Amino acid sequence: MKNKKIRFSIVTIVYNGENCIKKTIESLVNQTYGNYEYIIVDGLSKDSTLNICHQYKDNISKIISEPDKGLYDAMNKGIENATGDYIIFINCDDTFYDELVLEKVAQAIDVNNHPDFIYGDAVEVSEDESKQFLKRSRNHKMIWYGMFTHHQAMFYKVDIIKEYNLRYDLQYKIAADYALTANYLKYCKSFLYLDIVFCGFKQGGVSSVNTDKTALELYDIKTNILGLHKIQIFFILTVQKILNFIRKKFTGLYNLLRFKNA
Q1: CATH number for the domain harbouring residue 28
Q2: Is position 217 within any domain?
Q3: How many Cβ atoms sit within 10 Å of the Cβ of residue 224?
Q4: What HEC string does the chain produce?
Q5: What is the pLDDT of residue 206?
């Protein structure tokens, strides 16, 4: 039976995503749980993205198509338009792992007295989509180290985000999701980790390529938001730099060491 109490806000950001938007939309449309609003924020795509979106107009609550200042500006638009109880971002080329994700999360929310923050595991998909790797979440208390799971495997309470006016800080071009999460957790009193896979996420992306710029942003966030000592930060960033080097140069070895086969 579909739980009708919890309403999710699902937000997808897309720009020229004609090759991947369909699978993202269908991963939501195929959910067994139906109490959600679906918001698509499009950066005024030049390809057939909007035509594809309109094919699913009965499943989409709102389509915003206009120029933006980048990914995080578009995600802020998603927050502004969210009216559900919990919000999650499943952007173009991301997917819910299976059709039961929202149903399982909704049931867990009811059983656990509506926690402030919910997170789970993710599956990383190789860039050629030939392999999948299970990425177990770390404990949320390890926010000091970095993002403990994928952003697409986190549910935030909309009321908390709006009460404290939390938004993606546009000064961060790569790590604004980390900054928002670090800020958000300060206002949470209850946390729930679910031992299930929430999402599929393709390997690669901006943060794995622009490692030097990422490190600068992480240093700023760890200093100004998390209040870590510079020696702690230096140690953390050194370890992460080594791991990023291994990931880039020896992807197969990194996947073998870091992940389990999904």
Answers
A1: 3.90.550.10
A2: no
A3: 11
A4: CCCCCCCEEEEEEECCCCCCHHHHHHHHHCCCCCCEEEEEEECCCCCCHHHHHHCCHHHCCEEEECCCCCHHHHHHHHHHHCCCCEEEECCCCCEECCCCHHHHHHHHHHHCCCCCEEEEEEEEECCCCCCEEEECCCCHHHHHCCCCCCHHHEEEEHHHHHHCCCCCCCCCCCCHHHHHHHHHHCCCCCEEEEEEEEEEEECCCHHHHCHHHHHHHHHHHHHHCCCCCHHHHHHHHHHHHHHHHHHHHCHHHHHHHHCEEC
A5: 52
Owning domain of residue 20: 8-137+148-203
Report the predicted TM-score, pTM, of the whole model to 2 decimal places.
0.90
Token digits of residue 112: 């656990």
CA distance readout (Å), 240 to 171, 172, 211: 22, 18, 9
Phi/psi at 121 (5° precision)? -95, 175
- Is 255 a domain residue? no
CA atoms lying within 13 Å on the CB side of residue 23? 14
Domains held by the chain: number: 1
CA separation for the pair 55, 22 (Å, rounded):
10
Instruction: Look at the alpha carbons of 101, 73, 215, 125 in this order and tell me if their dihedral is positive or negative.
Output: positive
Dihedral pair phi/psi, residue 260, rounded to 5°: -110, 150
Q: Is residue 3 part of a domain?
A: no
| Structural domain includes residue 48 | yes
Render pLDDT for 27-63 as a digit per residue (tens, 0 to 9).
999 999 999 999 999 999 999 999 999 999 999 999 9
- How much is the pLDDT for 126? 74
